[in-house]
Amino acid sequence: MPTDTSLTARLPDRAEDLARVDRVARLLDTRYGIPGTRLRFGLDSIIGLIPGVGDTAMLLPSLWIMSVVWKHGVPKRTIGRMAWNAGVDYVIGSIPLVGDLFDLVFKSHRKNAALLREALARGA
C-alpha cells in the first residue's frame, strides 16, 4: 500500500520527466528557425533528409516519449493518440521530398509532449 511519501516522491519525478520530454521535443521539432519567417524546425527535419534511415531513426525518440508516458500511467487512449502522431510522422515523413516538407509543419514530438502535459495536469 503506497504511503503519502511515495506519492509525493512521484511528483518531482513527473516534473523532471515532463521537462526532459519537452527538451527533447523542442530539439527534434523546433530548435532552429528560418530567419524572416515563423517557420521552425529541428533535428527531425534535418535527420529525416537521410533517405531510408532518417525517419526510422527519428521514430526512436517517439518510442522513448511513449515509454515515459506509460511509466506515469497515462490512459491508453492518450498513448494511442501519441502512437498515431508518431506513425503519421513516420509514414508521410518517409515519402521523398513530400515527407521532408511535411516534417517542417507536422511536429509530432511537440504534439506528444503536449499530450503528456495535458494528461499529467488531469492527474493521470
What's the structural blueprint in terms of helices and strands?
Elements: H1 4-29, E1 32-33, E2 40-41, H2 43-47, H3 54-57, H4 59-71, H5 76-93, H6 98-105, H7 108-121
Antiparallel strand pairs: 1-2
Helix pairs in contact: 1-7, 4-5, 4-7, 5-6, 5-7
What does this structure look like?
- This is DUF4112 domain-containing protein.
- The protein has seven helices and two strands, in the order αββαααααα.
- The protein is mostly helical.
- It has one domain (4-121).
Global geometry: globular
Look at the helices and sheets and give the structural class.
mainly alpha
How far apart the termini lie comes to 19 Å
Strand content: under 5%
Helix amount: over 70%
The tally of strands reads: 2
Low-confidence stretches: 3-8
Mean pLDDT: 88
Report strand order across the widest sheet.
1-2
Report the radius of gyration as a whole number of Å.
16 Å
Reported for the largest beta sheet, the result is: 2 strands, antiparallel
Helices and strands, in N-to-C order? HEEHHHHHH
Number of domains: 1
> How many helices in DSSP terms?
7
InterPro entries: DUF4112 (IPR025187)
Organism: Maritimibacter alkaliphilus HTCC2654
Protein name: DUF4112 domain-containing protein
